[in-house]
Amino acid sequence: MRIYKQNEMDADHVTGWSKGGVTDPSNLTMLCLTHNRTEDNK
């Protein structure tokens, strides 16, 4: 497990924005930049 710095993280939608998910803290989780950009569109 690696601990990431804040500037290496991105907020990710739990329910994808394209699927009607809202941009609200209750629908966001933090992922490293690499994993956020390679994750499938949910």
Automatic annotation (TrEMBL):
What does UniProt give as the signal peptide span? none
* Superkingdom as given in the UniProt entry: Bacteria
Ranges of residues in domain HNH? 7-41
> MF terms per GO, please?
endonuclease activity; nucleic acid binding; zinc ion binding
In its UniProt entry, what is this protein called? HNH domain-containing protein
